[in-house]
Structure formats: structure tokens, C-alpha cells
């Protein structure tokens, strides 16, 4: 009978085990290694990020312009409303003797009688406009004048053109210019409101 060399068998088994262990270890090591893909170099912004930033900037610029337009529209509405409210308040203090002697300051009378609209600021004996400037309201005897100073040019154009449509005042002049009667076109108001700021003088004979 042929003798089997047990030492050779043991050596082969050990070698197989070592070989298997080595292969397993290598496989484990490969599994543990992180999968490395393409990496963006540090300090370099991706195209996607640039696009997002550009969109955000466009939205901020657009939103800022819209907010500015909103504030401009609000100022125009507020000041136009103030002028019309003051017209009504002044008419309420007129008697058969009119508004008093020509040149009489009517602001203290309006304040004392509580005729100033609640949304308007008062400083001492003066009524303030939307830009913190005092109105100059004077009697002309049977009529009155209402001066609205310190009005920004862009607001002046809209206020003059819109308030003139209501027919409350007999005339309006801007920056000591000629008096305009009746409703004014926007282009006419733009020509009149040539200074920044402007002073608007409303005149009523009623």
C-alpha cells in the first residue's frame, strides 16, 4: 500500500487556509475602502452653484425694485389723500365771513378745532406732510391757498396730475410757476415738477 505523507497534507491544508485568509482579508479591505468618484477641487464653485447664485441675485434686484415702486405708490396715495382731506377740513371752518382776513394762517385753527385728519402729524401749530415738511395754509378772504413743500419730483408728478382730476381746487402751480386750471395731463405735471424737491401750491376760491 502507498503511504500518504501526512506532513504534505498538513502543509497543503495550511497553505490553503493561508491563501483563503489572505484573499478574504484583501476582499474585506476592498470593501472598507471608500468609493472615490470625481471630486470637485477645493475652491472651485460648480456651475450649478453659480446658476443658483445668479437666480437669487436676479430675484433680489427684482424684489428691491418692486418694493421701491410699492413705497412710491404708497407715498403718492397718502399725500394725495392728505391734500383732499385738508381741503374738506378747511371748507368746514368757513363761515359767512369767509376764512378771516387775507394772509391768516389757518393751521392753528384747524388744529384747535380737531379738524386735522388722524393720520397726519402735528408739530406745535403746524401740520406736517408725508415728508415731514409743514403745510402753509393761508386765507385769501373767501378762499384759501394750501402750499405743500418738499415733495420729491417723482411724487410731485403723480400727486399734481391725480389731485387735479378731482376738481376740488380752482388751480395749482408748482415752484412759483404759472397757475394751471382744470385736470392736468401727466406730461404737463412733469413739466411743472421740474425741481427736486418741488413745492405745490393749491388754490381754492370757495
TrEMBL record:
Domain Type 4 secretion system PilS N-terminal stretches: 75-204
Pfam families referenced in this protein's UniProt entry, alphabetically: PilS (PF08805)
Coiled coil: none
Keyword Metal-binding attached: no
Species this protein is from: Paraburkholderia humisilvae
Highest taxon listed in the record's lineage: Bacteria
Transmembrane segments annotated in the record for this chain: 40-62
Alphabetized UniProt keyword annotations: Membrane, Transmembrane, Transmembrane helix
UniProt protein name: Type 4 secretion system PilS N-terminal domain-containing protein
Amino acid at each position: 500500500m502507498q503511504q500518504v505523507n501526512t506532513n504534505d497534507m498538513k502543509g497543503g491544508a495550511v497553505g490553503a487556509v493561508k491563501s483563503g485568509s489572505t484573499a478574504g482579508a484583501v476582499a474585506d479591505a476592498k470593501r472598507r475602502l471608500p468609493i472615490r468618484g470625481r471630486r470637485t477641487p477645493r475652491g472651485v464653485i460648480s456651475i450649478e452653484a453659480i446658476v443658483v447664485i445668479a437666480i437669487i441675485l436676479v430675484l433680489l434686484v427684482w424684489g428691491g425694485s418692486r418694493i421701491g415702486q410699492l413705497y412710491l405708490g404708497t407715498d403718492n396715495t397718502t399725500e394725495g389723500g392728505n391734500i383732499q382731506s385738508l381741503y374738506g377740513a378747511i371748507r368746514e371752518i368757513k363761515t359767512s365771513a369767509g376764512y378771516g382776513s387775507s394772509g391768516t394762517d389757518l393751521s392753528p385753527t384747524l388744529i384747535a378745532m380737531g379738524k386735522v385728519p388722524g393720520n397726519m402729524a402735528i408739530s406745535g401749530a403746524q401740520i406736517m406732510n408725508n415728508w415731514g415738511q409743514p403745510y402753509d395754509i393761508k386765507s385769501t378772504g373767501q378762499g384759501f391757498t394750501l402750499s405743500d413743500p418738499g415733495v420729491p419730483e417723482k411724487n410731485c408728478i403723480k400727486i399734481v396730475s391725480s389731485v387735479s382730476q378731482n376738481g376740488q381746487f380752482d388751480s395749482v402751480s408748482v415752484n412759483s410757476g404759472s397757475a394751471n386750471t382744470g385736470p392736468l395731463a401727466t406730461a404737463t405735471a412733469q413739466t411743472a415738477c421740474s425741481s427736486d424737491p418741488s413745492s405745490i401750491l393749491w388754490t381754492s376760491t370757495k
